[in-house]
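User: Can you recover a sequence for this backbone? Please restate the input before giving your answer.

Assistant: Of course. Working from this structure:
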């Protein structure tokens, strides 16, 4: 049995591709190397159930990937997998570079300003063309914090804390 705390979501099954059981994958990172260097992936269904699958093949396609899994050879077999999150074990992924983090490690961090004002916790992260955006929520407010060097002053994963230097007007929105 796999410990779900070991898993990191690397993409989402967004649809099928063709009639031979191939899947379209929206990649959270755009990094195909991790999938190409492993044999096993884990799919977390909408119901939360986890399934282990052996990879038959993976290729880049239209900004995402096409994934073929063993034992699936027609569209009807893979339709129930659409919407599942594609996960890998942390040990299957490269260590992030300095000042880079897996989204999973940032979720739930308490965000404070460099002047000590607590804004809330990172509740969601989404990607834009130029940078990620951290959605920071408190009981009564939500902030959208760009993940750029001018704003992110410190990330302390063990201390469960992120310190930001807000740009003028950032917290007024």
């Amino acid at each position: 049995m796999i410990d779900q705390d070991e898993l990191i979501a690397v993409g989402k099954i967004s649809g099928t591709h063709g009639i031979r059981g191939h899947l379209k994958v929206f990649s959270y990172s755009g990094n195909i190397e991790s999938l190409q260097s492993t044999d096993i992936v884990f799919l977390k269904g909408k119901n939360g159930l986890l399934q282990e699958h052996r990879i038959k093949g993976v290729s880049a396609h239209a900004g995402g990937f096409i994934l073929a899994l063993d034992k699936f050879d027609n569209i009807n077999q893979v339709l129930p997998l659409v919407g599942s999150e594609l996960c890998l074990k942390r040990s299957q992924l490269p260590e992030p570079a300095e000042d880079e983090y897996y989204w999973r490690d940032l979720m739930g961090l308490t965000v404070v300003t460099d002047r000590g004002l607590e804004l809330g916790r990172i509740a969601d992260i989404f990607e834009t063309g130029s940078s990620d955006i951290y959605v920071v929520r408190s009981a009564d407010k939500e902030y959208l914090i760009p993940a750029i060097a001018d704003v992110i002053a410190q990330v302390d994963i063990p201390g469960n804390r992120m310190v930001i230097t807000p740009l003028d007007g950032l917290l007024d929105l």
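That completes the design. The first strand starts at residue 7 and ends at 17.
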